[in-house]
Automatic annotation (TrEMBL):
Stretches assigned to coiled coil: none
Native organism taxonomy: Bacteria, Bacillati, Actinomycetota, Actinomycetes, Micrococcales
PANTHER family: FERRIC ENTEROBACTIN-BINDING PERIPLASMIC PROTEIN FEPB (PTHR30532:SF24), IRON III DICITRATE-BINDING PERIPLASMIC PROTEIN (PTHR30532)
Family in the record: Belongs to the bacterial solute-binding protein 8 family.
Subcellular localization, as worded in the UniProt entry: Cell envelope
Chief subcellular location: other
Full protein name: ABC transporter substrate-binding protein
Family annotation (PROSITE patterns): PROKAR_LIPOPROTEIN (PS51257)
InterPro entries: ABC_transptr_periplasmic_BD (IPR002491), Bact_iron-sidero_bind (IPR051313)
Gene3D superfamilies: Nitrogenase molybdenum iron protein domain (3.40.50.1980)
């Protein structure tokens, strides 16, 4: 199963390193050392340092990683995605024209085609809970995992903050030759958005929200510990509810039956935006929907679930959430 549960859970019903040398490194966050004269070095999210005699240029990347690299002018030769690119909220506005698409289905990558491209680097997020990079984790088909034999696989780690992930991709891009001076301008706008959200949440100290993704016969409640964007929101003052009983086998979520969907009564619901508005419609069809006070009151919005990789995207999402918080009623769930 994918660690991005709700491109993954929507698919459930249908459902190593390579060429360069490596040495153990610090597990503290990714660092990069660009140098045209001495080759290439990058300490990846798995804590290992990868090196090459030359800076990699033939890059295959997970689509979200590709979006991040492209924001700094690093264009991959191919991408693999977890679902149809045109319908992915996290890939809106990205121009993949001329870039080979190796997959638009989680768990399946056309490794034979990838091999013909002669890549010298593969890029994706490192997922500590599963000890694997994007597209190579448990549950994908074995043939797809062979992509890791084509080239070194690197990328910053998913951790307890999306900010660290964003910064990790900026560092990786710089190691690959990008001029990342634009990052400072992006960071200024982002910092301003964070400050605005903090002011809004400080003015609504009793506002409780619940991050959810209803699907099929399950009312799934997100566990912030495994959703760094939700941890960021908590850090900036938004009271995102921590569910009491995360699933033992996949603790990203607490899976409730719809009969128990009113277990939590927040002041607002945040729907996983990757399946929105379909997941909202799924909940609306359930008889219990009227017993969930926030849903009955129309106190709903979305949260950017597992796809944020750039400052501009994060800034836009924080600005939208700030407007929602400013208008929210802290008494809905009482």
């Amino acid at each position: 199963m994918s660690r991005r549960p709700f491109a993954a859970l929507a698919l459930l019903s249908a459902l190593a390193v390579g060429a360069c040398s490596s040495a153990a490194g610090s597990a503290a966050g990714p660092t990069a050392t660009p140098s045209a004269s001495t080759g290439w070095s990058y300490t990846s999210g798995d804590g290992k340092t990868y090196t090459a005699d030359e800076v990699p240029t033939r890059i295959i990347a997970h689509a979200y990683a590709a979006k991040a690299l492209m924001s700094y002018g690093i264009r991959p030769i191919a991408v693999y995605a977890d679902g149809p690119i045109d319908g992915d909220v996290g890939l809106q506005g990205v121009d993949f024209d001329g870039v080979e698409v190796l997959s638009e289905e989680w768990g399946h990558i056309d490794v034979e085609k990838a091999a013909t491209l002669d890549p010298d680097l593969i890029v994706g997020d490192w997922w500590p809970a599963e000890k694997a990079y994007s597209g190579l984790e448990g549950g994908v088909e074995e043939a797809s995992k062979k992509m890791a034999t084509l080239a070194t696989v690197v990328g910053p780690s998913q951790g307890d903050s999306i900010v660290e992930l964003v910064e990790g991709y900026a560092e990786l891009a710089e190691s690959l030759g990008a001029d990342a001076s634009v990052v400072e301008e992006q960071r200024v706008a982002f910092d301003a958005a964070v400050s605005d959200l903090e002011r809004a949440t400080a003015a609504k100290p009793d506002l409780d929200v619940l991050a959810i993704s209803p699907w099929e016969d399950t009312y799934a409640v997100a566990v912030p510990t495994y959703a760094p964007e939700l941890l960021d929101l908590q850090r900036w003052g938004l009271r995102v509810i921590d569910p009491q009983k995360p699933d033992a086998d996949f603790p990203y979520w607490e899976s409730l039956s719809f009969e128990n969907a009113d277990t939590y009564q927040p002041d607002a619901l945040l729907f996983d935006d990757r399946n929105y508005p379909g997941n909202r419609d799924t909940l609306a069809r359930q008889p219990i929907a009227s017993s969930i006070k926030a849903f009955a009151a129309g106190a709903t919005t979305t949260w950017p679930a597992y796809w944020l990789h750039t400052y501009p995207d994060y800034t836009a999402q924080l600005q939208r959430l700030t407007e929602f918080v400013e208008q929210a009623d802290e008494t809905v769930g009482d």
